[in-house]
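Q: You know discrete backbone vocabularies at least as well as I do. I have my own habits and do not want them to colour yours. No explanation is needed for now; the record alone will do.
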Amino acid sequence: MKVRLFYCLSIFFAISMAIHGESVKLKTLFKDLKTTVEPQKRIEVLFSIVTEIKGSYPDSAAHFFNLINTESQKLPFKEQKIIEIRLNIGRAQIEIAKGNYDAGWHFDSLALVQAKTEKNLEQQAIATMGLGNIFYYRSQFDKAQEYNNEALRLNRQT
């Protein structure tokens, strides 16, 4: 019951942002969410919504991660693990956007360990790039370049 209420309030918030001109794409995504039944597709729509709102509304984006987590429970275990990695990368991006670099480091590091465990090069590359971005924002450019070069190397292997 609480999840459903939260879900409805989240949709109301995002739709009200869309109505007020925040994003035409957001309107489309919520229509897609309303009509999509299959959990994996719903998760992709929810991730797209987060992408649209995380810069302007990072706290609201974090609430959508809870919805993604709930939807992922309907998937096979292996797919749940990949969603968990993506959630941690997303949480890192939100924390970095808010200037919470230590929290961002925590989530990207966690995602990197999970991606290595799952042998998922794509998610390893994304998490490594996130760590490189933290070094960049902290003006540690040599370390940033090192991490981003590693991310590029991993990405080329995918």
